[in-house]
Amino acid sequence: MTSASPPAPAARLGAPDAPAVSRAAGFGRLLLSEWTKIRSVRSTIWSLALLVVVTFGFTGLFTWLTILQWSKSDPTQRAQIMSDPVGTILGSGLEFGQLTICVLGVLVMSSEYSTGVIRASLLAVPRRIPMLVAKATVFAALVLIVGEIVTFPSFFIGAAVLHSHAPVSLSDPGVARAVFGAGLYLALLGLFALAIGGIIRHTAGAITAVIAFVLVLAPLTQLIPGKIGKYVHAYLPTEAGQLIGQAHQQANQVLSPWEGFGVFCLWTAVLLLIAGYLLKTRDA
Amino acid sequence: MIEARDLTKRYGDKLAVDHLSFTVEPGRVTGFLGPNGAGKSTTMRLILGLDRPHSGTATIGGQQYTDLVAPLRTVGALLEARAMHPGRSAYNHLLFLAQSQGLSRSRVDQVVALVGLTEVAHKRTGGFSLGMSQRVGIAAALLGNPQVLVLDEPVNGLDPEGILWIRNLMKQLASEGRTVFVSSHLMNEMAVTADHLIVIGRGKLLAETSTQEFIERSAEKYVLVRSPDVARLADLIAADGGKAEPQEEAGGNGKAAAVRVTSMDAPRIGEIAAAARIVLYELTPRLASLEEAYMELTADSLEYGAPGSPPPSPAGPPVTAAQAPATAQGGTE
Fold first, then answer.
1. I want to staple B76 with a disulfide (CB 3.0 to 4.6 A). Which of B141, B194, B268, B297 is the partner?
2. What are the tens digits of pLDDT across the range B88-141?
3. Is B121 part of a structural domain of the chain?
4. Considering the domain boundaries, does residue A157 fall inside one?
5. Does an H or E element contain B309, and which?
6. CA separation (Å) from A263 to A219, A233, A256, A259, A268?
7. Looking at the 3D structure of chain B, how many domains does it have?
8. B246 phi, psi to nearest 5 deg
């Protein structure tokens, strides 16, 4: 147990050391402040490290298994992989890697509530919304950067493994956009999870909600029969958002990659607005 | 200066703060007293914009908290001590707050030294004792060198040395002309710290007065008289216009009996005794302790009373010092 040294006998408060601030200059300070918050807790480091390891690992593993099973797999599946190798590569690793972003996104917001830091944060930024905007901006930027650092190497890993049966190059049409887009998807997914963390405020509940939605609920809607099922599934946030990681629109898909990404953007924007409204109106 | 005007906060159908109005002046320590559940913390949260009042306003220097630009430079607040991420170091906790207000890293170092945490500043706060967490909270409150301080139970969890330190700190901050508003449920703590008192119970204002006035107003003064011939003395005192009541004493066997005399001062009692040649063993002017005065004042408004305590009387008559707000305005400190 560490102990505090005796306090200074008398308070020497000193003078404030910076000139008064204007609101305009204030936002840059909030970005800096939120960056300090995010970088100073271990959950950030662990989640992002796990994103890298899990994504690289599963990309390698699943593409390798695909090659091993190649001769035994059914022809339609093979045709699908050959028509969109980049989608196969990104889908295999990020399917699991994205869960770390779901968890981190929720935590970035919900941990403020579970630890009580939200009170300190809101005392510093009593208008509240600028705090949420700064937090979302910093977090999305961080995930975008790390996301790109993850998606490009995993593409190269997967492409190298698939090379013999489904060759793909970054210069093929749509491929560079798909790889870059997968990073964008992760950043947006982070915001999606952050918004849900802000709405639900309880870490466990929010993580369960996000992961259950992404992994279970959204894919399950594929089982809804007929045209309705097809459209419901197509317009769900993460299912639509993941389309950005494909080189081109498949024949059976309702939305193009960018349309899908746009749909996910809309969902996330709505959730962030709800989170902002609740942040502004609820007692902290 | 902090001004609350007709503040009301309702949780469900329970009134936590009930049309509360008061003023906290700069240049002195104002104690905010009330039993647990009286609404002290809620009131502070309303002042700080964390909760929204159902009606009424709270302003700091004429502005609502939510309208302050870089509020930590105007108001420093300590709410619950554990409001920190256990995995974040004390330094980083203070740093993100400083950055949000445009304050420098050197200012963080300054306040860390001020509260005596330099050696542990880079350790995660999860391992901190309550007292150490409290110091981090105080460092955060002092970060922006604010003119107004709002401290909710700041001595909680501090050791005697820490209590003395925070007491002196509050007095010093007030002597520098700052507004210091500090809550406590301990009357004795406030007696040695606060110059002025705001007492609430069940969300209502019970008294707003100087500490000195509060004691004199709410506590009965009496003289304790002990004599081997106490019965005769009591009669003489009664005949002279005083009131003498037997003093109940636990385990007082072997001692001469005593009476509590009110409406008569000690010299007069001495004179009466001397005239009647009655021996006095003890003649002690007594002032009821501040704690007693406080208990008396809040007895009707206890939110969580022990069994056998007087039942709450929501529409009960105002207690003695409830008239204090009107008169306290005139008393300048």
1. B141
2. 999 999 999 999 999 999 999 999 999 999 999 999 999 999 889 999 999 999
3. no
4. yes
5. none
6. 16, 12, 10, 6, 9
7. 2
8. -60, 135
Considering the domain boundaries, does residue A239 fall inside one? Answer: yes
B195 secondary structure, DSSP code: S
- Of B77, B89, B110, nearest to A123 by CB-CB distance is B77
Query: Residue A10 in contact with residue B116, Cβ under 8 Å?
Result: no
Mean pLDDT on A234-260: 91
What ipTM was assigned to the predicted interfaces of this complex?
Answer: 0.89
CB contact under 8 A, B72 and A123: yes
The pLDDT-based confidence of B301 (bands split at 50, 70, 90) is low
Over residues A205-213, the mean pLDDT reads: 94
How far apart are alpha carbons A105 and A210 in whole angstroms?
10
Chain B residues touching A104 at Cβ < 8 A: none
B120 belongs to a structural domain: no
Q: What is the pLDDT of residues A124-154, one digit of tens each?
A: 999 999 999 999 999 999 999 999 999 999 9
In a domain, B328, yes or no: no
B70 with B151, same domain: the answer is yes
pLDDT tier, A4 (very low <50, low <70, confident <90, very high otherwise): very low
CA dist B135 and B139 (Å) reads 6
Residue A74: per-residue pLDDT? 87
* pTM, two decimal places: 0.83
Domain boundary among B287, B302, B328: B287
Same domain? B151 vs B274? no
B247 touches chain A (CB under 8 A): no
Band (pLDDT 50/70/90 cuts) for residue B222 is confident
Q: Is B323 on the interface with A (CB under 8 A)?
A: no
How far is it, in rounded angstroms, from Cα B34 to Cα B22?
14
How sure is the predictor about A119, in pLDDT bands with cuts at 50, 70 and 90? very high
Residue numbers of B between 13 and 72 with CB closer than 8 Å to A: 45, 48-52, 65-66, 68-72
Helix (H, G, I), strand (E, B) or coil at B283: strand
Which residues of chain A make contact with B135, given a CB cutoff of 8 A?
4, 7
H helical segments located in chain B: 40-47, 90-100, 105-114, 130-142, 160-175, 187-193, 211-218, 230-239, 266-275, 290-298, 324-328
Under DSSP, is residue A6 helix (H, G, I), strand (E, B) or coil? coil
Cβ atoms < 10 Å from Cβ of A164: 9
A14 pLDDT band (50/70/90 cuts)? Answer: low
Structurally, chain A folds into a number of domains equal to: 1
B126 domain-assigned = no
Residue A258 located in a structural domain:
yes
B163 and B53 within one domain: yes
Contact A5 B116 (CB under 8 A): yes
- A16 located within any domain: no
pLDDT of residue B252: 55
- Using a CB–CB cutoff of 8 Å, tell me whether B144 touches chain A: yes
The three-point CA angle A125-A127-A133 to 5° equals 80
The residue segments making up the domain with residue B275 are: 221-287
Spatial distance between the Cα atoms of B33 and B201, rounded to a whole number of angstroms: 8
